[in-house]
Amino acid sequence: xxxxxxxxxxxxxxxxxxxxxxxxxxxxxxxxxxxxxxxxxxxxxxxxxxxxxxxxxxxxxxxxxxxxxxxxxxxxxxxxxxxxxxxxxxxxxxxxxxxxxxxxxxxxxxxxxxxxxxxxxxxxxxxxxxxxxxxxxxxxxxxxxxxxxxxxxxxxxxxxxxxxxxxxxxxxxxxxxxxxxxxxxxxxxxxxxxxxxxxxxxxxxxxxxxxxxxxxxxxxxxxxxxxxxxxxxxxxxxxxxxxxxxxxxxxxxxxxxxxxxxxxxxxxxxxxxxxxxxxxxxxxxxxxxxxxxxxxxxxxxxxxxxxxxxxxxxxxxxxxxxxxxxxxxxxxxxxxxxxxxxxxxxxxxxxxxxxxxxxxxxxxxxxxxxxxxxxxxxxxxxxxxxxxxxxxxxxxxxxxxxxxxxxxxxxxxxxxxxxxxxxxxxxxxxxxxxxxxxxxxxxxxxxxxxxxxxxxxxxxxxxxxxxxxxxxxxxxxxxxxxxxxxxxxxxxxxxxxxxxxxxxxxxxxxxxxxxxxxxxxxxxxxxxxxxxxxxxxxxxxxxxxxxxxxxxxxxxxxxxxxxxxxxxxxxxxxxxxxxxxxxxxxxxxxxxxxxxxxxxxxxxxxxxxxxxxxxxxxxxxxxxxxxxxxxx
Length: 632
Fold this sequence. Notes:
With 632 residues, the protein is of the alpha/beta class. The protein is 40% helix and 14% strand. The chain is built from 26 helices and 17 strands. The strands form 3 sheets. It has a 7-stranded mixed β-sheet, with helices on both faces. A 5-stranded parallel β-sheet has the order 1-2-3-5-4, with helices on both faces. Strands 12-14-13-16-17 form a 5-stranded mixed β-sheet, sandwiched between helices. The protein is globular. The termini are far apart. The relative contact order is 0.08. About 6% of the residues have low confidence.
């Protein structure tokens, strides 16, 4: 089979470009099957890459990669790209510790022109590369930005379009319009594309074009025919559709069927010869090739293991009667709070299912706002709500909140607006790797004046912090950061209580060494202390700080007066976080104890299971227990 199947003879795009055009559909079919088979056994992002199979084959067939640059926006569209560019044999290691990344990575392959874990970056990056090529005299180099999966809703994409339109750079933007990101795409732009591609005029026009071509999709497009087609498109379908991009000085082409491989190849070949900024509108189906993924794209965005024959997602083996996910505790608690407080509203930048605001959406749809992949807008929108007396719970993944740093400072903290920031996916998130770890929130938020920063150790504290943050006497921005995954107890629905701001708690005391922890990583410290005590018979202190800001200085004085050795533990970067805060406190007050900081080192952390990454960083249970035993 492999000897005669062209797919298995492809090790680089050069091999692909040696094939005849009529062999490409088989390559696409086998590539889709390969992705399905691999992701069913080695979990990753499924739907987005299945939707771009034909587009991926066409791009590498037409363009001279890696000399020509392809920049993939929302990098989980790029599995097919990775497989066709020399990583087929390595793909079983995708997203595993020591394996290949689930996203494009410049360090991994020369074919990965630009790293992409967050969305909406491709147009700006491609424009920068195209501009550099002009300056270097590389006038034949092509630059293609593939943007889709909801990324066009991000403001950065429009900033790039605006700048690219007045440039002389040779850039092709491919809008992969699949009508969805992870959840269904929201906003006027998404609705606009849907109306356009579903319109009667559009479909009548497509049929007319088909008839003009004699029903032969393989007929090459002469340049004058493209010109006539675009002119007819302008007059017959929707002048506004073309004007949206052509008002930005982009030549607009499409929409075309993103699963029609022959047409894709022919159109891309023609677009290669057209100079200046161009946009090709391609309509695709997320999850194509797996019926269940096509019908339930949100569920099958990253489904875990599934049966390739039935498409059924396989059980993870986790007893659901045990501790719930922090995300679900948030989702159920905000409904409980919102029923009692009519001022509470929920805001998310395109992650209602991931952060569990979808639960509130079902019960109180008028009080939840999905603003699209637009974190900056989400924060300032929340600030506007707070300025008018509402209580906005703005839920953003920790790594995505980095994109809204100026808005947090300028629009919220400077104006002392009580926005509640719920930073989901804080700490190490596992297989998504460096682009998604919530490593920096404690450090980048701590310098901001007038902000409360908290991290619950368990579900009960998460609920209490949410309750405390929405009370009328809170007049400050209030950050609650919590990890991805399950908590520690099934008995999570405890009565809501105030979590006193700026106050930590002593969990146990004794001996000469104490651990100061913040957040859910404190559960590792708790287990490590039990392990070390069982082995040595010695006692150790453990203090749950809960708040990084304001810091519980009264509690710290108690700790420094009692213990000879003090360990700080956090699942964020050591520089700037809890360790830095405690060191500053120690220096300010003249304490001389030995301080041992545990946390994430001063480098980007790779992808892998959370257990593997904690072990690498020395914050797993065994490493902490070993350190405690050494301190005796």
